[in-house]
Amino acid sequence: MPASRATSTLADDFAWRTLDTLNSAILRVDRARRVTYINATGEALFEVGAANLVGREFERLFSPVEPSSIVARLAAGPVALTEREAVMTLANGKSILADYSIYPFGEVTAEDEILIEIRPLERHAQFAQDELNQLQQQATQQLARALAHEINNPLGGIRGAAQLLQRELEDPGLVEYTEVVISEVDRLRALIGGMLGPSGGLRRERISVHELLEHIRKILLAAEPERIRILRDYDPSIPEFEADRDLLIQAFLNIARNAVQAIDGRGDVTFRTRVGRSFTIGTRLHRLVVQVDIADTGRGIPAEMSETIFLPMITDKPDGSGLGLPIAQEIISRHGGTIQLQSTAAGTTFSTILPLDKP
């Protein structure tokens, strides 16, 4: 608990814990404009824990190269105000679009402490994108299952007929043709199975996300030990949680292979893990989530594909099936999570968000 909460009454402590549930970042600064309190959403926004933020000068939370308007407004004096759609560049280099409000305590003098509320607008857009992704996933899964049912039936008949024909043929040269028919039917059935994704219920067990990522790292390095370098940036505080180990390995492996395939020549893939607090997935607010970033230094995803990349058969790779990412999204969605995408010409990051609370 930060030092500012040490002497709180029971009612005050309840108030602080209530602030931790908000989707807005709440900060309190003293007369020297040093942070004396920050809620859980603020920790997630600045990607720094309260223990390291309390006591820091407020302006140091933002980039000195691209000063944010909130820093200038605060320096001008403790005046109550609200600004809409302000562009903020944080100290970590990340730019966000946000509304913010400044609330001086008591009389408006330079001696007063000030409460600051920052409401990132990107989250509202992400809520809508998450809902759209879920609707797209449901629609494509229903279409794929209906299509697979219609195709599987005649394929089974074709395979059976080819096997019967093969038994009657005495010419080995003709038998080769029936073997081609049977093998191609089997290939198509396997392809359809891939479109449907994993079936059956989740087999949940206690897992470590880092153990899974290390397993995937070994697989990738075994395939391309010279071309790809895999960097790790893990948060050791992430606890074990209940999930289907095999399915998560498949999901993360699909994403990681996509990252490797996006790199022409030599390049880096980074595995990064972080804990998030008060994170909303769909319509449900989760107290704690784990965020797994898989970032590459590849060519990036074209802007016109960014909204359809999770649809089946959508790919920019000549030899790609377009099934890896949709299957990954299906697996993560079944775990109550979501996958977010950020891509530039310098590379792509897929961020997988999974709830840590029990389902």
What does this entry look like structurally?
This protein is α+β, with helices and mostly antiparallel strands and 359 residues long. The chain has three domains: 118 residues, Beta-Lactamase (2-Layer Sandwich); 71 residues; 152 residues, Heat Shock Protein 90. Helix content is 40%, strand content 26%. The protein has nine helices and twelve strands. The strands form three sheets. Strands 2-1-5-4-3 form a five-stranded antiparallel sheet. Helix 5 packs antiparallel against helix 6 and helix 7 packs across helix 8. The radius of gyration is 26 Å and the shape is elongated. It starts with 9 loop residues before the first helix and ends with a strand. The N terminus is likely disordered.
Helix-strand layout with pairing:
Elements: H1 10-19, E1 25-29, E2 35-38, H2 40-46, H3 50-53, H4 69-76, E3 81-89, E4 95-104, E5 114-120, H5 122-168, H6 172-196, E6 204-207, H7 209-223, E7 228-233, E8 241-244, H8 245-261, E9 267-281, E10 284-296, H9 324-334, E11 338-344, E12 347-355
Parallel strand pairs: 7-9
Antiparallel strand pairs: 1-2, 1-5, 3-4, 4-5, 6-8, 9-10, 10-12, 11-12
Helix pairs in contact: 5-6, 7-8, 8-9
Count of DSSP strands: 12
What CATH calls the topology of the largest domain is Heat Shock Protein 90
Number of helices: 9
Please report the first level of CATH classification, the CATH class of the largest domain: Alpha Beta
- Helix % is 40-55%
- Rg over CA atoms, rounded to whole Å, is 26 Å
Low-confidence stretches: 1-8
The strands making up the biggest β-sheet line up spatially as 2-1-5-4-3
User: Which band does the percent of strand residues land in?
Assistant: 25-35%
The end-to-end distance, rounded to whole angstroms, is 27 Å
**Count of the domains:** 3
CATH homologous superfamily heading of the largest domain: Histidine kinase-like ATPase, C-terminal domain
Mean pLDDT over the residues = 80
CATH architecture of the largest domain: 2-Layer Sandwich
Shape: elongated
Reported for the largest beta sheet, the result is: 5 strands, antiparallel
Give the SSE order as H and E letters: HEEHHHEEEHHEHEEHEEHEE
